[in-house]
Each structure stands twice: as structure tokens, then as C-alpha cells.
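Q&A FORM
Asked by: J.P.
Topic: structure of G-alpha-domain-containing protein

PROVIDED:
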Amino acid sequence: MSAQGKSIWPWLRSSNSQNSLQQAAEAEARQRSDMIDMELAAERARLQQESKTKILLLGPSEAGKTTVVKNFQLAFTPKSFLAQAAAWLPVIQLNLVHSVNTILDALDLVRSDSAEPEDSEYQSSHTIPEDLRQLGGRIAEKLAELESELSGELYSSAPPPSSRPPSRSDHERPRLQHRLSMVSVRGVTLRHKPTEFQSAFPSWKIVVDRARAILAECAPDIASLWAHPWVRSGLKAQGIHPEHQPGYFLPDAARIASPHYLPTPEDILRARLTTASAEEHSLMLDVGMARKEWLLCDVGGSRSQRGAWAQYFDDAKLVIFVASLTAFDETLAEDSAVNRLTDTLLLWRNICANKLLASVELVLFLNKLDILKAKLENAGVAFVHHVNSFKSRPNDVPTVSKYIKEMFLAQYRQYSSSERKVFAHITCAVDPTAMYPVMGAVRDVILHSYMSQSTPV
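REPLIED BY: S.T.
REPLY: Here is the structure written out as C-alpha cells.
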């Protein structure tokens, strides 16, 4: 190596060493900066979480939890709620079409003359009127395809388009009271929330307009179907009352099919969607001079979903438990041997006794007062036939609803922590006028830890 090369070598080593030290210092500085950023992000997330009031809506399926969420939205953010009315149109169309298809199937109105049920005692002793058979033939295929199309647009999976299913014997046919309460087959999930549907799918208007046209064509036959005495007597003979089920729009076919129909607040409250998983709904509300976020967690209530409830218990400020006043003569869709009221009381007891929720106040909604009235007064259902302990009390709405309320409060007193209160309301969640003061009472519980409109237990 030349003398010049020897003289450069120490300088190069010194320069490389300095570069290494500088790179190490820069890396350390970047690491410190990243850690600070992470700490700041965590602090922002913590502060943001602390600013939210987390409200859990629990209870069995088909009790009306999602309808309660809609009541919160209507009561406290009415402009936003009403601005999204059009997004509920395909859901309401699907509710109506599904109800009609289920009735056609349940009463075998579209089976061929040669296709006799294997063991249906009712159909073997009652001949289907020819006008009804013709009516079913006119609308069955159209509405079956429309139901599949609407389900396919709303849900991430749906049954393939097909004609009406073949007739099934009574022991194979699911109870209509379960089927009518379902928008589509079990196991499917919504692609998006209804309020996001219009923006998410460019085909939204095409599907809605096509459904409107088909319903306009079928509306007179739907009205004739629902008004026909044979249909009413046939459903009644099987203990089936579609008017008692969620998503009941059978009398509204002509209105829903009209060119300028837009869902009303009452329509949106009545619209039925199954909650396949937990859904969070954020509401920004004015609290004094501040703006506060309420996070409503609507958790699915079927047996298969209840195991996941505990993960939502952290940071909950309030539990709203929604139970149905009409569950006493119904059975679970998952197990027809289990009474719905018995299952609901057990579920309520478990919530009251849960140690993770021991300091969380409870609001109890005993819902579906309107359907209770229809069962007791119109359908003549005797409550004592299903709840023996009721004994000889009057079979009227005030007495029955009060008795059911006491059944739940007895469970609360026995299994709940003595440190917290429960606020019980008998509700009709599809009646916004009646629900508005209830929403105000719940707001008072959240904001002031007391309720001014009723006396806590």
C-alpha cells in the first residue's frame, strides 16, 4: 500500500465509526419518538374511551333490543334518524315478502293437486278453496324470487333463487311463529347496516324499484290472501298469529308498493332484522355545555351468541335488559321444548348475579305490550294455562303485565347486589309516543344515577 493510502486509512476508519455512532443515535431518537407517539395515541384512546358512556342491551332474541336502539336514535338524534328512512325500504319489503311466502308455505297453498301432505291432519280435512289455490299460483314464484333477491342484496349470503319449496309434512315444517320473525335463513349476516346500504351498493335503487314493481303487481292478491276467512281460520287452527310477530306489514302491501312510499318512523321501528352479532351504535348528545358520546352495544340474544356476552361487560355504565311480555306461550327457536319466558327469567337471573356487573345499574324493559293486549283480548289466550302460579287472577293486560314484572323483580331481589338499583318499565317499543318519556327516564339514569319518573325498587 502506498504512503498516501496508509495516510487515508485511519481517517476512513474514523469516518465509518462516526457514521455508525450517528446512525445509532438517529435510530435511538426514532425509537424514542415512536414510543412517545404510541404513548400519546394510547392516552388519546384512553381519554376517548373515558368520554364514552357504554350501554349494553341484553336479552333473548326477538325481545326488541334493536327496536330500543332505534328509539334512542329517534328520541335523541331525530334528524339523522329520519334522514336515513329510505335505507330501511328494502328491509320492510323483505319483511312483507317473507311473511307472505311463509303463509303460502305453511298452508300449502301452492302444492299441486297430486301432491298430498303425508301426515297433515288439517289439510286432509280441509280442502283449499280454488280461488286461494289460484291466488297462490299467481304470486308464489314471483315472491319467492324477490325474497331471494332482497336477501342476497342485504345479506352476505342468501338462499339461491328458486321456486316455492315443495310442501312438507307438519312434523318437518318449522313453526310459523319462528319463521315469521326471521328476515332470512339463520346463519346469514348483513353486508352493511341498513343506514349504509344505499352508499355501499350501487344496485340499491334497481333492487328497490324492482321490488316495488313486483309488490304493486301482487298487492291486490296479498290483500285478498290476508283477508280470506279460510287463511285466517287455517292459521288460527295451527295457533299461528302473524300479526303478533315482528316485521308485520301484511295490511300495508299497497302502501309499501306505492311509487312515492317512504318509511315512516313507525315503519322503521316495526322493521325486523336479525342481529347476527354484536353491533355498536354511537350517539353524540349534549350534556350541559359539553358533547358526550353514548355507545349502545346491541348484543345478539340467541343461545349460540350468549357465550360472547362477557367480553362486552368491561366499562359498561348501564345494562338495559329487554324481555318480551308475550314469551309465556312461545318456545325457543333453538329448542321447542324450552319455554321462552322460563329461558328469559333464567337469563335475567344470571345477569343479576353476574359479579362483573355487580356495580352496574339495571334497566328492565318488559316489551311488546301491544302484542300482549292482542293475545289476551283478541286471540283469547289464557295466561294461567301457561303460568300455573297465576291462578284465578283476572286475565287482563294490567294484571298479567304486573304479574310478569313481579316475576322479574323477585329474581332481581334474590340474586342481585344490594348496592345497585333496577328501573323497570312496561313498554311498547314500536310506539314512539309512548317510548319517548321512557327514553328520557333512561337518560336520567345515565346522567344523574336516578330516575325522576318512577320509584326504583
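FOLLOW-UP: The mean pLDDT is 80.
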